[in-house]
């Protein structure tokens, strides 16, 4: 059970007490009772007495345990998100999650862009069942949402990728342990997203996380972490800025740096305006030098100077398909879950195959797909046939590999358009054209909150509405040319209010324009980077 005694308020609340900062509704709720303090009621009173017994303020606090009201808000149904650092889990854990989804969540799950699972159609009476079963398999939902640390993400093939600089898993797990269920960090200005990876291509997206620790190699050959702070998308997108420091591979120092950054966000982050309560706004105002100086005052050891790190040209890999591991004779196999949607029975089957043909270790990716690890080469033919028979082929079109969506109006109270089913339809329509643009990333966000990460996509679509015959219909704004790593940039608007039913037509035009105008060996991303927005927009008219 949680401790009912609230923690001391962080220092920046002094300004609230003296009247220099007006308390927002969310800050008032956190002041009156810590988000983590709602657990007793979730397990007890609310589960016993039902939806009508929940005070409005506690609906906000329930987010700290990954429990969100789904659309419509007063339907009595909830979304439940789990916490799975680095997207790592075992087949036994996966089976338990699939069983829960079958019993309580109408038989399906979503893989999220933060490498975890979320279930829908849960009732408040289901929360104790979910909580206790997750606890029994060594997992939790604590911190899955709310104004605290979200799921710590990492490279989905950490520890097995032959090209990685090092396996960052121990550090990601240590950081997650330090921040989860920790009342020192359960009242942050807003959500807090962390990426920790030793991946050589930085596939864990440090550019768009609040805090990103990414693998680097110094000129003297030492490997460790570079540090980025202040990334984030939503309505005002910011790329994270690199601090001029190097963090050696020592758990005490890695955790110390993360703790220091977290304290800065907690104590100095903006709370007076909810729209500016993300760490990205503090970093934008301070800059990396001031932030590094403030961080040095927080940690109990000298921060080592950084260098000019070489950024990857193309960090957008999902480690898809059959690939050799660093462990001789073993392979990992990435399979598609288009838009992250997967039936519970299919997840259970993947878990069975992971046990039968591999070690039972599994990973979720930030591209909403699933990877099976440690498959001996001799088992690959039988595994691939079994995957195909289960509808989980390890081969997919370029369009299917790059399709990412948010939850959309099916369940989300913020979304304005439907996304999951529209993406599935779109990919089928594009595959039917026979076109092959090579690597191409198509993202759907159902609203400006950008949960589908549309700003960093090759082709990003943001939900809106358009009048058709006097009726409001789903539509999208179309953006082109987003990328991270070297030459990073957010994509640019090229077409407004594309009716949802016509999205496949404008995507086809974009692909055909690229295929006709590209230079030899030029990727779609590089083509968009060199082609003026106006020229692309004209081609799509």
**CATH class division of the largest domain:** Alpha Beta
From the spread of the alpha carbons, the general shape counts as: globular
Mind telling me the CATH superfamily name of the largest domain? Sulfite Reductase Hemoprotein, domain 1
Helices and strands: which structural class? alpha+beta
Summarize model confidence as the mean pLDDT: 94
- Beta-strand content bin: 15-25%
CATH architecture of the largest domain: 2-Layer Sandwich
Instruction: Please estimate the helix content.
Output: 25-40%
Report the C-alpha radius of gyration, rounded.
23 Å
The unreliable regions are 1-9
Number of domains: 4
Distance between the first and last residues' Cα: 59 Å
Report the biggest beta sheet as strand number plus sense, adding barrel if it closes: 6 strands, mixed
Q: What is the total tally of β strands?
A: 21
Fold-level CATH name of the largest domain: Sulfite Reductase Hemoprotein, domain 1
Separate helix tally: 17
Folded structure, characterized:
- By secondary structure, the protein is α+β, with helices and mostly antiparallel strands.
- The protein has 4 domains: 13-136, Sulfite Reductase Hemoprotein, domain 2 (Alpha-Beta Complex); 169-305, Sulfite Reductase Hemoprotein, domain 1, CATH 3.30.413.10; 321-396, Alpha-Beta Plaits, CATH 3.30.70.3340; 401-540, 2-Layer Sandwich (Sulfite Reductase Hemoprotein, domain 1).
- Helix content is 32%, strand content 19%.
- The protein contains 17 helices and 21 strands.
- It has helices at residues 13-17, 25-32, 39-43, 45-49, 56-61, 91-104, 127-136, 169-179, 251-268, 279-298, 344-357, 380-389, 398-401, 420-432, 503-517, 524-530, 533-540, and strands at residues 67-69, 78-81, 88-90, 108-111, 117-122, 194-197, 211-217, 223-229, 241-242, 245-248, 304-305, 321-324, 330-335, 341-343, 361-364, 370-376, 403-405, 442-445, 459-468, 471-480, 492-499.
- The longest helix has 20 residues, at 279-298.
- It is globular, with a radius of gyration of 23 Å.
